[in-house]
Records
---
Amino acid sequence: MSVVLSLKNIKKNYGSLKALDDISFDVPKGSVFGILGPNGSGKTTMLGIVMDILKATSGNFYWNGEQGSSSEMRKQIGTLLETPNFYHYLSAEKNLKIAAAIKGRSYDEIPVVLKKVNLLERKDSKFSTYSLGMKQRLAIASTLLGSPDILVFDEPTNGLDPAGIAEIRELMKDLNRQGKTIIMASHILDEVEKVCTHVAIIQKGVLKTVGTVQEVLNAAPTDNKVVTLEIEVSADNIAGLEEVLQQLPGILSVTNTGSSLIIESAETLSSSSINKYCFEKGIVLSQLALKKKTLEKRFLEITGDKSDR
Ligand code: ADP
Ligand code: MG
C-alpha cells in the first residue's frame, strides 16, 4: 500500500484545549479518505496543519514520504478548505481565468477542468445564475487546475441543498475513479458511508478508530463484546426459538421485538449455521435477515454519544 499522507503523533493545543491529541494514521493512495467527527472535534485544525496553514504543537506529517509540506508539494494538492470567492457578475470561465492566473496555471486547462465538473456547457453563464451545486462544482474545478493527484476538501457539501449534495458526492466518486486520492472532512456519517473508502473517526481531538469503512463497520468495539453481525429471525414458535438461540454458542444477545428476534452474534456465526442449528432443534425459521451494521450505529458505539463539545 502506497501512502499519500502520514500523520505521526500530531498534537495541537489552543491554551489548555487539546484540539488534536496525538493523532497518527496513514492515508492510502487512491482512497477517498473521510475524517469524520462531530463539530468541534478537530477536523479543520487537522487539515489546516497538513496544508501548512496552522502549525502543530508537536508531531510530524509526511506527504508522499516527505516531511512537512514544501510549496512544491502543495502545488500537487488541490484544496478546498473554505468557500472560495468568485465574482458574481463574471462567467465561470472568467472566474477560472482569474484563479488560473493566481495559481500560475495555463488557460488551456480551463475547458478541461470545466468538463470534469460537467460545467463546460455553462462556462459563459454568470456565476450568480448558478445553482448551489454548480457553484461548489466550480470551486472544485478551481482545485483541479494544475491536475493535482491529491484533493483535500473540508466539508465539501456544507450549505448545499439535497440536489447539490448529490452532485458533489457523484463528482467526488468520479474524481476518485480518475485516480485522485481525496481527503475529506465531514460531520455527516451518511456522506462518509456513501462516498468514502476509508475513515478516521475523531472526537474531541482523539482518534477513535481508523480503517476501511468496511473494517470500521465490522471492528470489535473497545469493550469485550465483539458484535459483528445483527440478524433478525422469526418462527411460528417465537418463545421456543428464543430459548434455543440463547443456548447457541457465539450468540451475544437476543432481543424480542414481539414479531421477531434480533440477535447479535460474533463473526464466527453465519446465517446458514444459525438456520441449520434451529432446524436441528426442530424450529423452522420463517425469516432470517442479515441487518447491516450502519456506520451511524458504529459511530455511536465508538464515541459513546453524539454530543459536540
Ligand atoms: P471541526 O472542524 O471538527 O469542527 P475545529 O478543528 O474547527 O473542529 O476545532 C477544534 C477545536 O478547536 C474546537 O473546540 C474549536 O473551538 C477549537 N479551535 C479552533 N480554532 C481555534 C483557535 N484559533 N483558537 C482557539 N480554539 C480554537
Ligand atoms: Mg470544521
Note: Residues 3-212 form a domain with the Rossmann fold fold (CATH 3.40.50.300).
---
Amino acid sequence: MTPDLMKAGARIRAEHSGASYGRVVTPGVVDTAHGAILYLDDITVSFDGFKALNALSLSIDAGELRCIIGPNGAGKTTMMDVITGKTRPDAGRAFFGSTIDLLRLRENDIAAIGIGRKFQKPTVFEHLSVFENLELALKTDHGVRASMFFRLGGAQLDRIGEVLVLIHLKDSAQRSAGLLSHGQKQWLEIGMLLMQDPRLLLLDEPVAGMTDEETERTAELFLSLEGSHSLVVVEHDMKFIHALTHGNPAKKVTVLHEGSVLAEGSLKDVQANDKVVEVYLGR
Ligand code: ADP
Ligand code: MG
C-alpha cells in the first residue's frame, strides 16, 4: 500500500472510530466477495423540490463495464456526483464493495479508496509534457513537502510506461500536452486517473468531441481495462455503446430517465423497449 493510501486510511479510521462500522475501512482492500463493487439503493437527490434522482437503485459487479444512457437531465451526472461525494443525497444508501459506506466519506477520501472520475472537459496541464502529467498524477495527495522530495522509483517508471502504451501516447511522451488533439488530451486524463490505481472508474461522456477513429480507440482502451477495473460509462454516442457491448447479450446497459432506472438489460433488449424508444432513442 502506498503511503498516501495509508495516511488516508488512518484518517478515515480516525474519523469514523466509534461510528457504526462493522469493519474497519482499509483503502485498497474493497470487499467484493459478494460480487458488487458499487451498490446504490433508493438514492434520492432533490434540488429545490425537484428530484434529480428519484429512488435510484443500481448495482455494478467487480470487473464489469456498465454503459449508462438516457436523455439530458435524466440524472446521470448527479449519480456520479453522489458516488464521488460531491452531492449528498436526501435519502438512500451507497456502498463501495460490501463494507464501505460512501455516504460517510468525503470527496478526497472517496478518491483515495479507489474511485476515479473523469469529467467531460479534459483538465491536463498544457505546459507540461505528457510524461510529466502522468508523473504529477502520481504525486497528488503527497502534499507539497513530499512532492518536493519525490523521486520516481523503478516500479513507478514502469507503470508510466505501461499507461503510455494503454492510452496510445507512447510516441508523444515528451510532447507538451497543449499540443495534443482533443481526443489525446482525453486519453491523457484517463491515463492520469489510471496512475492512481483506481478500482472503479466513472466516465462522463468520454468521447464527446472525438473523431470516429479516436472514439474507436477509446472503446478499445475501455475494453482492455474491463476485468481488472470496473467502469461506469455515461455516453450518448450509440456507436460507441455498440463497440463497448459488441453484441454481447450478457453485457448490461442501464437507461436512466427522470432520476431512476427506466430499463436495464442487453443493448438489444433496451433498444427494443417501447418506453426507452419513446423517451430517448426514438427522438
Ligand atoms: P444528465 O447528466 O443526465 O444530463 P444531470 O444529473 O446533470 O442530468 O441533471 C439532472 C437534473 O438535475 C437536471 O434537470 C438538472 O437541471 C438538475 N440539476 C443538476 N444539478 C443541479 C444543481 N446543482 N442545482 C439544481 N438543479 C440541478
Ligand atoms: Mg450529464
Note: Residues 47, 52, 70, 72-78 surround adenosine-5'-diphosphate (ligand 1) (CB under 6 Å).
---
Amino acid sequence: MRSFMGRDILSLKDFERHEFFRVFEIAERLEPIARNRKNSDMLEEKTLVTAFYQPSTRTRLAHEAAMHRLGGHVTGFSDAKMTRAGDWYQESIKDTVKMLEFYGDVIVMRHFQQGAPHEAAKWSSVPIINGGDGWGEHPTQILTDLYTVLREKGRIDGLRWLAVGDMRMRTMHSLGYALSQFDCPITFVAPPEMSLLPEYKAELNQLNVHFSEAEHVEQAIADADIILVEPVVQPDYTKSRDERSGKEVGMTPANYKITRELLATKAKSDAILLHSLPRMDEIPADVDITRWSRYWQEAFNGVVMRMALLALVLGAME
Ligand code: CP
C-alpha cells in the first residue's frame, strides 16, 4: 500500500479502494477525541497553514479544528486580499507557496482557479490538501460524505445514490471519481444548463461508474439509499468572491428540492440525506429534524475526516 506520509490530497481520481478504507479506519480510531471534545498531543510539533483564496466556513475551520484536536498549530489566511497574492502584486501560486512551505508542515488550499492546488503541489516540499478548486474537486468533502455513509449505514457497497444539484460542482466531480471504487449506482438530477459536462460523462464511463440521469427528484428518490443535495441557486465558483449585493436570488425549482413531504411520501424509510452546506432553499429547515437528515452528523464527521487526513499525511499514523 502507498504510504500517505508526505502525500498531497488533490483529487479522488487517484484514490484506490483500499486507501478509502484506510482513511476511514484512521478516522474511526480518532473519532472519540472529537466526540469527547478532547485534544490530544499527536501533532504537537506540527503546524497547518491555511491558504484560502475563496470564502469558506466549514472547510477551513474543520481543518483548523482538526489540527487543534490533534494538538497542532495553525497559521494562514482566510482572505487572499490581505496578502500579496490578492493585492496589486497578484503574487503567483509558486512564489506564495515557496514562502508558505517554511511556515508549516502541511498546507490546505482553497482557490477559485481549477488546478491551483495541483500547481501549488508542484512547488511545495510539504503536502498540499485541496480544500476546493473552482469547479474542479473537493476531495475532503466527499471523503467526509463517504465516511458518514459508512458510519450511518455500516457499508458503502450496494447502496444506490441520488445526487441533486449543479453537476458542474467540485463535490459532484469528486463524488463520481470516488464511486468508481465502489458498487454504487448513482442517478444525477440537475437543471439542463447545470448538467454533467460531456467530458466528465466520458470520464465516468471510462471509470465504469454506473450512472443515469433524471429530470425530477420524484423520478429517482424512491430507489435511493443515499440522497446527496447541493444548491442549484449558488454563486460563481470561479470567482474569488461573489457578492449578492442586493440582487434578488431565485428559488429552487421543485425538480431539485427535497421537502419533508417528498421524503415522507416517496423516500425509503431508511434513506439518509446529505448536504455539504451552505444551503439555500433546496432543503427547507423543517427537514432538519426528520429521520432522513444527516447533514449535522456530516459536519461533525468533517472534523474527524480532516483529523485522519492530517494524521496520515504528517506521518503520525500509518
Ligand atoms: N462544504 C463546504 O465546502 O463548505 P464551505 O464552503 O463553508 O467550506
Note: Residues 56-59, 132, 141, 276-277 surround phosphoric acid mono(formamide)ester (CB under 6 Å).
---
Amino acid sequence: MAIISNDLQRKTWLEVKKSSDFPIQNIPFGVFTRPDKKTVIGTRIGDYAIDLATLQALDYFKDIALDKNIFTQDSLNNFISSGRSTWRKVRNRISDIFLNSNTELQNNITHRNKAVFAITEVEMQLPIVIGDYTDFYSSREHATNVGKIFRDPENALLPNWLHIPVGYHGRSSSIIPSGVPVRRPWGQMKNKDATAPTFGPTAMLDYELEMAFVTTNANTHGDIIKVDEAEEHIFGMVLLNDWSARDIQAWEYVPLGPFLGKNFATSISPWIVTLDALQPFKTNGPSQDPTPLSYLQGNGKYSYDIHLEAHIATEDNDFQTITKTNFKYMYWTMAQQLAHHTINGCPVRSGDLMGSGTISGETPDSFGSMLELTWRGQNPIQLKNGQSRKFLEDGDTLKITGYCENDNIRIGFGECIGKVLPAHKK
Ligand code: MN
C-alpha cells in the first residue's frame, strides 16, 4: 500500500507554519487529555491536536476495519497491535481528511469544534503503557568517551562492543512524558580516594540525549526477528532523555551495569513519529568493521538522518544549545538492535520501548551528555549569563529537540523537556 500521506504536494486546510515539526506529512500519534478532561488518542498537524476518537465516532474512519473505540483509550498499545498496514491506512485517511481540497470536515464547524483543539488546550500524556524498557549503548563515540572517562583510556572500547549491540534492561515505571519535572535523587557513592562510600543527593546529575523506538507485538516467545524484517515491527520513534546520576552510576555499575543511577527518571517526547513518515530520511549508518555475525547482517538502509540537539536553561538564562548531533552516527541500527534482542527467542510486545543509548558524534560539540561535554567536570560549560556548569543544578531545564529536514520538507519530533527539582531534605 502506498504511503499517500508522504506526498510532498499535499497541503492542509489547517494553518501550519513553515518551521513546524508537524506538517501534514508527519501525522504522529499520541495521547492527550482534552479541556473537558477526557483522555483520547490523537494526532497533531501544526499547532493543532486532533482527537481521533471523536473523528471515529463521527464516522470519519468507516472505510477502515478498526475496533470500535480503538482511539477512546489512554494508550496506543491496542492500536499498535493492529499492525503496520492499519497504521498506514489510518495515516493516509487522516491525510485525506485534512487535505485542502477536502471539505467534509473543513466545512463542518460542529465536527471541527468537537475534534480539533489548539495544542495549548490539551495536556500530553505518556503515549504507551510500557511493559519493558531496554536501553542500548550503540554510539561508538559515546561508548569510547565513557570508557576513557570511567575506565581505561588505552582500552576504551570493550572487546565485545564491535560485535554486539550492547544493552541492558531498564525500568519502565519511572518513564515520564516531556514536561514532568525530575527530582534530584539520593544515593550511595564513593569518591575515588575515599575508603568508604557516602550517602547523599547526587552531585553529578546528567542528561543523555537519546532516541527510542516503540515496537509492536512482534514475535511469539521462542521466535526470532530478522534484521530485514525488523522495521515491520517498529511503530515509530520518540526523543528520550535518560537522566543519569554519574556518581551513583560509577560506584554501582560493576558487574551488572546501570541500576539506581539511571532508573529514577527517563523522559520521552509525547508524539510517536512513525517509520513511514521518516522514510524520506533513510540513510546508511557508519560502515561496520569487523563484519557483524550473520544474524546481524541486513540488506537495507536502516539508519535515519535526524538532527538532534540538547539545550540548557537556568533560572535566569534562556535556552542555550550545548549538543548538536545526529541519529545517523549510531553504529548499530534499530533493525540490528531488534534482531539481537530477539535472537534468543525473547518476545517483544506492543508498547515496548528501546532506547538507542546516548548519541554522540566525533566532535566535542556533538557529545550527548555533560559527562562527555565537560569530561567529568574538568572543562565546565560556559553559559551566556557568566555562570558555568559541570553537571545539572537545581532549577536547570534540559530540552532535547529533533527533526529531519531536506529541501522539500521538515519532519520533527517536538521536544523532550524536564526541569531539575532540588533533592528531598532527609
Ligand atoms: Mn542511556
Note: The pocket of manganese (II) ion is lined by residues 135, 208, 210, 242, 355, 357-358 (CB under 6 Å).
